[in-house]
Amino acid sequence: MRTLEARNGAKSPLGTIGTRVAIREAVKPVLALIFLAASLIGCAHTPANTSAAMAQWSHEQGGEINDCRVDRLRAVGATWSERTNIPLRFHVLNTTKVVAYSWPTGDVYCSAGLLNVATDVELKAAIAHELGHMLTDAKPGSPQAFGGNGSLTAEENADCCALALMKGANIPMDSLVTLLTKVSQASHSEQLRAGIQARIRLIRQAQ
User: Fold this and answer.
1) What is the pTM of this model?
2) Torsion angle, alpha carbons of 116, 120, 122, 128, to 10
3) Nearest residue to 176 via CA among 112, 121, 106, 110
4) Is position 8 within any domain?
5) Which domain holds residue 132?
6) Which residues in 59-185 belong to E strands, given as ranges?
7) 28-52: per-residue pLDDT in tens?
8) Strand residues in 62-123 grouped as ranges (E)
9) Number of domains forming the structure of the chain
10) pLDDT by residue (tens digit) across 77-117?
């Protein structure tokens, strides 16, 4: 997994948005990416080595839960499956950590801890962020995390994409901020909290 530190000289995608008008303009290229991704994500059989890696990884995270929480996540996530035509698959991890992950296969993992603290609207924001990773920086054979396991720039890219998706779906963009705040409060990593606070500042500037 990559670190949360931003790459030297990398520009903040959210810093280039700045206004509501620019966010509306950002929807157009995002929609183009969605149409392209819909033909690439999840439509082909997941390679056996990727399936094995996902199974091993989910086991290391505490395993999966198969109860009403999965039903809730699928119901919430249906918004994005329908709007993007991307066949997303949803899983709940048996951990109290407040986190969500995505794989480039279209698989989205949310923790039991996240489901405990997030509203349905905030879950939509989390899934939109994970879609942002799938559309902008998915790495074959590895997951991306909502709180951040890559460069700060990669997380800002995913936030930017999420804001555009949420704007198009009339989902309050502040729900991304409230969820990031909950993730930050639940984290014991100063580096992670600092990165989240930087992202929150940029999201607020874009609203």
Assistant:
1) 0.77
2) 120
3) 121
4) no
5) 14-206
6) 64-65, 89-93, 100-102, 107-111, 144-145
7) 454 444 434 443 344 334 545 788 8
8) 64-65, 89-93, 100-102, 107-111
9) 1
10) 999 999 888 889 999 999 999 999 999 889 999 999 999 99
